[in-house]
């Protein structure tokens, strides 16, 4: 038991140091990437004269974003982190290029401008305001995702003590709760941001539990007969899902009533 306690203390200390190093390291990398991407985008923008070119650039930007998400979830390779950094850097370039072209004196045609015109028309709707709030969580959510990727990469290292893997996965809910309540950088924390992040987590947990529960259900079922272990499994999953859906609906309903009572 004492040696396990020592492992836990060392591990928790290592996680805290890793989180601090990652915050500093990734922060500096992102700052440099944004600075370099701005220089490249400025250079490219000076050679773009076609007013419809923004359409093409915006489509490429969207496709690259989809590819980046695909790489994050589906691609398993030792070079995954390098590929992610390169893809994010390219996205930064195209994003900065779109920003520069849209702010020129010439009237460049833009999908974003058309969407923004629609947004201005319906911006006071509750659903639109909450959708905008969801998109505002994008950067911190992506950083949180990188932290989770690092944890899972550590989890596949072989020959580590079993207790290490247990406490490694035990830190996942702790990390997520830290993200919900404390990771806001220079931005002031408020109830709306906290509730939106909780909603994101509830939806994610629901999807994971549903998919995992469905897979386990068909793995454990024997010749169409429900065993006691399967019933116990489904009761446990249903209980967690009930609690998650209950909290999710409470946040949505309370927020909706609060919004319309102002």
Automatic annotation (TrEMBL):
<keyword id="KW-1133">Transmembrane helix</keyword>
<protein>
    <submittedName>
        <fullName>Uncharacterized protein</fullName>
    </submittedName>
</protein>
<feature type="transmembrane region" description="Helical">
    <location>
        <begin position="224"/>
        <end position="245"/>
    </location>
</feature>
<feature type="transmembrane region" description="Helical">
    <location>
        <begin position="164"/>
        <end position="184"/>
    </location>
</feature>
<feature type="transmembrane region" description="Helical">
    <location>
        <begin position="79"/>
        <end position="101"/>
    </location>
</feature>
<feature type="transmembrane region" description="Helical">
    <location>
        <begin position="54"/>
        <end position="73"/>
    </location>
</feature>
<feature type="transmembrane region" description="Helical">
    <location>
        <begin position="199"/>
        <end position="218"/>
    </location>
</feature>
<keyword id="KW-0812">Transmembrane</keyword>
<feature type="transmembrane region" description="Helical">
    <location>
        <begin position="6"/>
        <end position="26"/>
    </location>
</feature>
<feature type="transmembrane region" description="Helical">
    <location>
        <begin position="139"/>
        <end position="158"/>
    </location>
</feature>
<keyword id="KW-0472">Membrane</keyword>
């Amino acid at each position: 038991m004492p040696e396990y306690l020592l492992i836990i203390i060392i591990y928790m200390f290592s996680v805290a140091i890793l989180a601090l190093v990652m915050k500093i390291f990734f922060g500096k990398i992102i700052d440099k990437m944004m600075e370099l991407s701005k220089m490249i985008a400025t250079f490219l923008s000076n050679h773009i004269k076609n007013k419809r070119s923004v359409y093409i650039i915006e489509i490429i930007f969207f496709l690259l974003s989809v590819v980046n998400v695909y790489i994050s979830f589906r691609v398993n390779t030792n070079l995954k982190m390098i590929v992610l950094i390169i893809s994010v850097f390219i996205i930064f370039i195209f994003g900065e290029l779109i920003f520069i072209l849209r702010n020129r004196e010439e009237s460049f045609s833009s999908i974003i401008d058309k969407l923004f015109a629609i947004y201005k028309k319906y911006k006071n709707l509750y659903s639109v305001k909450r959708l905008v709030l969801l998109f505002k969580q994008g950067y911190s959510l992506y950083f949180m995702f990188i932290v989770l990727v690092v944890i899972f990469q550590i989890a596949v290292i072989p020959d580590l003590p079993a207790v290490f893997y247990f406490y490694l996965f035990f830190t996942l809910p702790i990390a997520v709760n830290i993200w919900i309540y404390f990771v806001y950088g220079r931005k002031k924390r408020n109830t709306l941001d906290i509730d939106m992040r909780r909603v994101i987590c509830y939806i994610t947990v629901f999807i994971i539990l549903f998919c995992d529960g469905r897979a386990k259900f068909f793995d454990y079922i024997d010749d169409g007969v429900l065993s006691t272990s399967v019933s116990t499994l489904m009761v446990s999953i249903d209980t967690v899902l009930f609690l998650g859906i209950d909290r999710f609906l409470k946040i949505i309903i309370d927020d909706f009533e609060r919004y319309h009572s102002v």
